[in-house]
Amino acid sequence: MRVTITINGEPVSGDVEPRQLLVHFIRDTAGLTGTHWGCDTSNCGACVVLMDGKPVKSCTTLAAMCEGHEIRTVESLEVDGQLDPVQMGFHELHALHCGFCTPGMLMTTRALLDANPDPTEHEIRTAISGAICRCTGYKNIVAAVRWAAEHEATTRQEA
Amino acid sequence: MQTPAPFEYERATSVDGAIAALREHGPEARIIAGGHSLLPMMKLRLANPEYLIDINDLHELDYIRVEGDELRIGALTRHVDLLESDLLHRHFPVFRDAEEVIADPVVRNRGTIGGSLCQADAAEDLSAVCTAAKGKVVIRGAEGERIVGMDEFHVGPFMTAVADGEMLTEVRLPLRAGGGSAHEKVERRAGDFAIAATSVALWIDGGRIADAGIALAAVGATTVHVARAEELLRGKAPSDELIEQAGAIASEDCSPIPDGRGPVDYKRHLAGVLTKRALRRSAARALHTEA
Predict the structure, then answer these.
(1) DSSP H helical segments within B28-154, as ranges?
(2) What chain A residue is nearest to B42 in terms of C-alpha separation?
């Protein structure tokens, strides 16, 4: 079936089987391999993208279900060479080790800050409770999100 | 790679259209909403529908509202909205208790109450919540609607009263004065299915329990409705001794199996302890004495 999905503001079309998962449409049809395909069971959160601004697990969403919806992937965070404050926070505070969970962590926490610009540590930990960092680097990830919250205004101004 | 077996896909534009498609394609057709129960089952070939009818565009099934003496919840209402609804929380705090520990926030953005109930997994929380709250479900087919209580809705493990050509459209919860409710769950990890969980609703009138609802998740082949403990509570003033007895009944009347989540005696113990805790919190909420 013909499916057209708006990904990072651009319509992407492909002939796909109805059973194709969103994660594979993003990686194979759109060629955006920043979104990672992890556990495939909606447990690990590596494949999280934003659907109409809300984080969803793209391994447990059919591509066909996303026609007419706006998808945002990790590639959309950096604009004209300027990193998103969440990316800067992960960089500043060493919030990744192997990096496999990072795209999902970035999109999950970007959505958190969009909804709640000043989250507590508990709120951050709740938000990422559906995202597994197998390097167990949660302490730095939480700190990086706090960094992003605190620097959101200034980093945006400089941009 | 985990991918479902091939199927055909259609996006419904109306409830009637979805029902017509269900009738046309018979037992091999399934409704899909959030997909967070069905797609994992399809990946594992535990479910093999040949035809999927996507109801995510049916916004008329996405609501929480009071109508007359009932609170009505549309089948497409997502977990995140059940969690955040102040209206629902005011009448049935048991929902927020449960939603805080159902899966994780990202899954809760997609999963729906209709999907959770129709999955009919005995370990799933909302089936216990709706049973304790004395809920009924509206099942619609080509011939019209029928209203079914939660006991009749659960036919067996992963089986409901929803027949071929029918779909669940609404959950109805009776509103009564003096209500208090709570959900208690123990799980292995954040967001996991329960090792055991208890939902309780109490209605207290003049210091006595006018009615009680108690249901357990994950300790039976289907949701366990602890009618014997409800019977014990009715007409009596809540007391430590009474709650102790009701907990003991919950522990006796469940039928857990040993598995990776724990042995039988541990699950029975949990069912008793969680029932007592949920009863205490429900009573405190009904009497406005919760700390």
Answers:
(1) 38-43, 79-84, 86-91, 94-99, 105-108, 113-119, 125-132, 150-153
(2) A19
**CA nearest B78: which of B57, B89, B65, B62?**
B62
Angstrom distance (rounded) from CA B179 to CA B201: 7
Q: What is the mean pLDDT of residues B251-274?
A: 97
What's the pLDDT tens digit per position in A97-112?
999 999 999 999 999 9
pLDDT at B206: 95
Q: Could you give the CA distance from residue A102 to residue A98 in angstroms, rounded to a whole number?
A: 9
- For residues B111 and B121, is the Cβ–Cβ distance under 8 A? no
Residue B83 phi, psi dihedral angles, 5° rounding: -65, -45
Q: How far apart, in Å, do the first and last CA atoms of chain A sit?
A: 41
Residue in the structure block whose two tokens are 């799933």: B124
Task: Sort out which chain B residues have CB atoms less than 8 A from A5's CB and list them.
Answer: none
Confidence category of residue A155, pLDDT binned at 50, 70, 90 = confident
Contact yes or no for A59/A42 (Cβ under 8 A): yes
And the tokens for B136?
A: 């009924």
Q: Please provide residue B105's backbone torsions phi and psi, each rounded to the nearest 5 degrees.
A: -60, -30
Taking an 8 Å cut-off on Cβ atoms, the answer to whether A19 and B4 are in contact is yes
How far are the Cα atoms of A16, A34, A149, B107 from residue A142, in angstroms, in the given order?
Answer: 38, 21, 11, 20
List of domains in chain B: 8-52 (3.30.43.10), 62-174 (3.30.465.10), 179-283 (3.30.390.50)
DSSP class of residue A69?
S
> At which residue do the structure tokens 């109801």 appear?
B55
The pLDDT value given to residue B190 = 84
Give the pTM: 0.96
Question: Which ipTM was obtained for this model?
Answer: 0.94
Residues B160 and B154 sit within 8 Å (Cβ to Cβ): yes
What domains sit in chain A, N to C, each tagged with a CATH number? 2-76 (3.10.20.30), 85-158 (1.10.150.120)
A57–B contact, CB cutoff 8 A: yes
Instruction: Identify the three-state secondary structure at position B18.
Output: helix
Q: Are B109 and A55 in contact (CB < 8 Å)?
A: yes
Q: How far is CA B289 from the centre of its chain?
A: 27
Give the pair of three-digit tokens for residue A120: 């507590």
Query: Which residue type occupies B76?
Result: L
